[in-house]
């Protein structure tokens, strides 16, 4: 299906089927539980490469590799479940509004960044990366770099940040509240966290079961 046909179908569906399809019209779903390339139209539903205005959602329960093989832009990315190894092999993956791990209540999702660059920002400086928003979410950075306006991990022990090596840049603020935060896990491969401004809070109340803070396990 060509790009014109795909977008025409997405506009037509709400008219034919009613308001229940409105959310579908704004979201493109990754369907390949074995993993694959962003640029392959058959990996998405509806079939076709997501447009810059689209939100992309990952709902597969399996563990798989997701490779962004060209410089692309989306409105947002939502990881609902499963374990995704995220590699950016060419260009930059830009999210204009949000990048969220742990999107569905009662469900666990994990994203492991291994290479390349993810940029979550916009002209207003309001891009948000959320870890453990509704369910349990884990962001593991084991290579590559993530740049975001804001980082939020506010779901207690259901928010896990495992920052092994690579880099993270937070432009306008950080809130980590009673989650699990581990920084530096690889010998001779430090993790670099650039905090450039805004209000930054990393807190742990010390209660049992509320995660913890570990700095420099090996590196």
Structure description:
- This protein is mostly beta strands and 219 residues long.
- It is 9% helix and 54% strand.
- The protein has 2 helices and 15 strands.
- It has a 15-stranded mixed beta sheet that branches.
- The termini are far apart.
Architecture blueprint of SSEs:
Elements: H1 3-17, H2 22-26, E1 27-30, E2 36-37, E3 44-45, E4 55-58, E5 63-68, E6 72-79, E7 82-101, E8 108-120, E9 128-131, E10 136-153, E11 159-177, E12 180-183, E13 191-195, E14 199-203, E15 212-215
Parallel strand pairs: 1-4, 2-5, 4-6, 5-7, 6-7, 7-8, 7-9, 8-10, 9-10, 10-11, 11-12, 11-13, 11-14, 12-15
Antiparallel strand pairs: 1-3
Task: Sum this structure up briefly.
Helix content is about 10%, strand content about 55%.
Shape: globular
* Unreliable sequence segments: 1-25
End-to-end CA span: 49 Å
Nearest-integer average pLDDT: 85
Class by SSE composition:
mainly beta
Helix content: under 10%
What string gives the helices and strands in order? HHEEEEEEEEEEEEEEE
Strand count, sense and closure of the main sheet? 15 strands, mixed
Number of helices: 2
Describe the structure using short key phrases.
9% helix; single chain; 15-stranded mixed beta sheet; 219 residues
């Amino acid at each position: 299906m060509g790009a014109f046909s795909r977008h025409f179908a997405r506009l037509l569906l709400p008219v034919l089927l009613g308001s229940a399809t409105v959310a579908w019209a704004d979201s493109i779903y990754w369907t390949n539980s074995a993993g694959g390339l962003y640029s392959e139209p058959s990996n998405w539903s509806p079939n076709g490469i997501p447009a810059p205005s689209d939100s992309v959602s990952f709902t597969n329960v399996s563990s798989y590799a997701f490779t962004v093989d060209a410089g692309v832009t989306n409105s947002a990315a939502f990881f609902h479940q499963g374990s995704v190894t995220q590699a950016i092999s060419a260009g930059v993956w830009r999210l204009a509004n949000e990048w969220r791990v742990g999107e569905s209540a009662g469900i666990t999702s994990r994203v492991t960044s291994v290479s390349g660059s993810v940029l979550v920002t916009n002209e207003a400086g309001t891009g948000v990366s959320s870890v453990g928003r509704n369910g349990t979410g884990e962001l593991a950075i084991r290579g590559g770099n993530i740049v975001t306006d804001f980082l939020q991990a506010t779901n207690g022990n259901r928010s896990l940040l495992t920052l092994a090596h690579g880099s993270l840049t937070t432009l306008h603020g950080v809130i980590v509240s009673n989650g699990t935060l581990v920084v530096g896990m690889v010998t001779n491969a430090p993790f670099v966290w650039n905090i450039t401004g805004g209000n930054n809070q990393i807190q742990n109340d010390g209660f049992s079961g509320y995660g913890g803070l570990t700095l420099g396990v090996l590196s």
